[in-house]
Amino acid sequence: MPKLLENLAHGTPVLSSTEGALGEVRGVFAIGETRVPECLLIFWNDTKEETLLDADEVLSISDDGVLLRSAREMYKVLPGYDPQTNPLLKRLS
What we know:
There is one protein chain. Strands 1, 2, 3, 4, 5, 6 and 7 form a seven-stranded mixed beta sheet that branches. By secondary structure, the chain is an all-beta fold. 0% of the residues lie in helices and 42% in strands. The chain has one domain (5-79): PRC-barrel domain (SH3 type barrels). It contains no helices and seven strands. The two termini are 14 Å apart.
């Protein structure tokens, strides 16, 4: 499995150190013309929704998946993903 955010494959597991599998990566995005990963599109298993998550929330990437800094509860306040409201985002993977 790649160790760089911009190379994450669709379906890479999203994990919590205390809760196990939370969802999967559906995309990695930069802002504008840069190649710097700014956010991940995450599909959450519990709500069956996609949200954008700041790339700084990734603690580590391993063969098991992407480990997040916080528990799922912290991310439940994030709005659902709407590509219409984020026109500057460019998909990296």
